[in-house]
Fold:
Amino acid sequence: MTEFAPRVRWDRIGRLALIVVGLLLVYLYINPLRSWVSTLQEAKTKRGDVAALQHEQRQLVQRKRALQAPGAVDTEARRLGMVRRDERAFVVRGLPRGGE
Structure:
């Protein structure tokens, strides 16, 4: 009696191994891909922050230049309602609004 020897289907085993290796590679790339995407989003946010801070810095430099002009500190103090020690402060009430 001849024994029926099961034949190994190497083509199917090869395909299955290839699928397993492919899935393993996909699994190994998921975390670095997720990290890369989050890094891109964070970089975009940081670029926006830098742009806002650069804008604020330009405004502060302009304000500094304006305050360094002669008489600028006196003008700013008067705008805030301050008077010098040797001056007398007056409050005028009842004037029409809007320069009419």
Remarks:
- The chain has a mean pLDDT of 89.
- The two ends are 123 Å apart (CA to CA).
- The helical segments are 10-68, 72-79.
- Residues 10-68 form the longest helix (59 residues).
